[in-house]
Amino acid sequence: MKFSNRLISLVPCLSIVLLGEAQANEKITVAFGEVLAPWVLADTNKGIILDLFDAAMSPLGYETEKIYLPYARRSKAYKRGAVDVVSDMNVNTIEEYQLHGFLSDVAYTYENYAFSLHKRHFQFNQLSDLEKYSLLSWQDATVHLGAAYAQMAANNPRYSETFDQSIQVKMLFLGRYDVVQMDAHIFDYYRANMQANGEVDLSQKVDRFALFGSSPNGFMFKSEKMRDEFNQQLKHLKATGQYQKIFERYIPNLD
Q1: By residue range, what is the domain housing residue 155?
Q2: CA–CA distance from 233 to each of 54, 90, 104, 141, 243 (Å)?
Q3: Is 173 a domain residue?
């Protein structure tokens, strides 16, 4: 009888320990971009990419710890095991940084353009046309966008990159660079935000040149099981219309 009472008293303690282990296993550390609105809004832990990931993984019981890093540091953090998942991954990036893990299905797609001030009257028809002009792009674009883009950048002595994409918009309207290369939604977001704050005069007309095509991206997982779960949830979000609603939350006029 004495043994029986002791066994019963140990059961709640054992349950607490097992529950604690289960909860710890459900936590995911994910690296997101640092300055990438409206895809990532680090100050509020919101944005298209974050909401997509949470909508996919939260129903499965996972808790996401979000870390915000510049592009190159994200890949390095994943490689050294500091995070479980990293965003903005494609085959080019994985090969360049020799990352090992499991790439998800395409979760979202950037639409990159070359932007210039209309008053400059530029006409760009192909990537090589950009080699003659000062161009500010985003960090690791030469890795992410493939060989043709990397060759253009290598041939351009006035090519630069920055991790802060709001700087690209500001530098264009201040006339510091002839061209900036970035996603259309990111450009529009920062332009509207800066205009509202009166930081820079952004009333000038802008030309957009679609030289780069779409840039599909996904998440890189350490766990194959977790990657497969994410893919299934992503399909569910698209099938139920939740995927589209997340985009419309940040881009109201999305077609």
Answers
A1: 110-214
A2: 10, 20, 11, 29, 10
A3: yes
